[in-house]
Amino acid sequence: MMSIVAAWRAVAAMFILNGALFGIWASRIPAIRDRLELSHEALGYGLLFMAAGAVCSFPITGRLTDRFGAVAMTRIIAVLYTGSLILLAMADGLWGLAVFLFVFGAFHGSMDVAMNAWAAEVEQAYDKPVMSSFHAMWSLGAGLGALSGYVAVQMGLTVLVHFLLTGGVVVGLALASSWVSWTSRQSQGPQSTFFALPSGALILVGIAALCGALGEGAVADWSAIYLRDITGASESVAALGYAVFSVTMVAFRLAGALVITRFGPVVSARFGGICAALGVFTVVSTATILPVLAGFALMGIGYAVIMPLAFSRAASDPNVPPGQAIASVATLGYGGLLIGPPLIGFLAEVFGLRLAFAVLLPLAVLIVLLAGALRRAD
After folding, report:
1. Pairwise CA distance, residues 355 & 336, whole Å
2. Which residues touch 212 (CB under 8 Å, ≥6 apart)?
3. What local confidence, expressed as pLDDT, does residue 188 receive?
4. CA distance 92 to 112
5. Rounded to whole angstroms, how far apart are CA atoms 252 and 210?
6. Rounded to an integer, what distance in angstroms lies between the CA atom of residue 367 and that of residue 268?
7. Are the C-beta atoms of residues 86 and 34 closer than 8 Å to each other?
8. Which ranges form a coiled coil (predicted)?
9. pLDDT for 330-362, tens place per residue?
10. Residue 378: how many CB atoms within 10 A of its CB?
11. Quick one: 225 exposed, middle or buried, by C-beta within 10 A (0-12, 13-18, 19+)?
12. How far, in Å, CA of 204 to CA of 146, rounded?
């Protein structure tokens, strides 16, 4: 039988790929916005198509994952997701960008469902709470992707060249690292409705995931613009906002297994909500670069374990097959990751970017109140 460590590495490679592609995209949003001359509102509309693509993909991928296995689905979607990143660099207007963002969001969401189902299988084989370590690899990939944007700007690379080079390298390495022998569970399961919405106890799990992921999405797509527009940071420095957020998230997710084992999922989630709230308050209460970066770092700590805990809870549900359970929570959770950016865009157009970010504060408090729903069912 293959080593469980080898299985962990294989899944981790796919999480790194998924995060890296998202971070690469996020790091060049200001450049794409400036090239297409988009307002905050127009960019928000474009990002809404990304959210729509993801939400539409969740129930389909959940059923396919239960039917054909998480491993096969993860590898196939990884290639398609990488190709969709390249399309974003070719957009020549708002509607072209919107269409490509729909495709990018669909493959991003699909891969999230499939790779988290695979991760849940490996976690159950480990019999330890290692889901947060996989999400740490996602954050590591996202941070590296964001840093690649900083390097690309410094080198004067166009967005297309940047996406081609980094996307090609990352997907090649990830696929090579993931090629291990692992037999996923396969089941027909009951057919879900078109939208994979959670039911029963999973509703509160999904809402907690929504609050955490909405904050993650807001930082991913707006931290660079926030630093440029509010603090006056240069484009290269602005790209560090998401990198700082990702670094602290990686650190706390790597420590997540120890934290969750020692204090339990409920206390861990409450601590995360408190840190996220403090981070949001720090960001919106100043217009100076270093304190804003510190606020993003606190938000990284705060949101670190929320999604891993939500997916672990979903995968352990006794009444719903893992693929469909994860897809239902992902509809609210990663739907929030993708709906957050357009929401911030719409609010920024009306109230300004700083007040738009302040909406994340009550959502962080809601995480504290819903922490009890993240206790594992088994």
Report:
1. 19
2. 272, 276, 303, 306, 307, 310, 333, 336, 367
3. 52
4. 28
5. 20
6. 11
7. no
8. none
9. 777 766 766 777 788 888 888 888 999 999 999
10. 9
11. buried
12. 32
Rounded distance between C-alpha atoms, residue 365 and residue 274, angstroms: 7
- Taking only the tens place, the pLDDT of each residue in 97-106 is 999 999 999 9
Dihedral sign from CA coordinates of 21, 24, 27, 30: negative
| Tokens 């166009």, located at residue | 158
Any idea which residue has 């204090």 for tokens? 263
Q: Which of 31-40, 61-70, 195-204 is predicted with the least confidence, judged by mean pLDDT? A: 195-204
Cα–Cα distance, 29 to 221 (Å, whole number): 7
The structure tokens 């390495």 sit at 173
Q: What pLDDT, in 10s, does the model give residues 6-25?
A: 888 999 999 999 999 998 99
d(Cα 216, Cα 246) in Å, to the nearest integer? Answer: 10
- Identify the structural domains of the chain with CATH numbers, from first to last: 4-374 (1.20.1250.20)
Token output for 322: 């893992």
Query: In the predicted model, is pLDDT for residue 378 greater than 70?
Result: no
Q: Has residue 184 got a pLDDT over 60? A: no
